[in-house]
Amino acid sequence: MILLYHHVAPLGSISAGGSGGWRFTHSPEAFERQLVELQRRRYHFISLAELVSELSRGKPECQDSVAVTFDDGWMDNYQFAFPVIRRLGITATFFVVSDHLRQGAGDPKRMGLAELRHLVQEGFTVGAHTRTHPDLTRIPEEAAWEEIAGCKADVERALGVAVEFFAYPGGAFNRCVARLTREAGYKAACCILGPKQNDASSLFWLFRDLLTPGLNTLGDHYRMSLVARKLLAFRVNRRLRAKLES
Prior knowledge:
- By secondary structure, the chain is an alpha/beta fold.
- It contains 10 helices and 9 strands.
- Helix 2 links the parallel strand 4 and strand 5.
């Protein structure tokens, strides 16, 4: 299971209107409780790189493994999520947009070079999320290439590390976008479809899961049930086919 997070922030700071991914928000306390509860249920946390390596060798995703990912590179990920996962000994991948890094113009809402370099120094992974967060399926192929390959180049230049993983902004991709991502040199890319077990065939649309802070909804039970995930995988397959053909 690959978990998808956006914001981790105190409830009083949550923006009204649900923009910027705020509707996918955990308080720091709820975020920690969720991870601790998953540990109590004997899930083991691995890096996205470990998972991709296993999938690339033909091994299916282990049903009790969890990889943690964050989209958009929000500053609150560094302020509030990073201390929690470091304290719990959990690693994570942070998918960041790069236009503010490339332009040298600081964006106070997003992590800058100092924060990203610290994450890398602490052993965390920084991935790419395009330069400006467009819907990649609604722009010309040349522009999509600049967003996908350009972000990789921007982050590698800024941090001096290889950027191997990508996440599609808003989960928007199709067959062309997935091809461009592969051609840009990434090893894998994450979408927002799920729940479904990942394998070698899903490397460029890795399935991810959104869990509620309390882990107590019907959706949570479904996502953490091996039987339910297998029985209802046809829904994900149907949505995947529609994405690829769009």
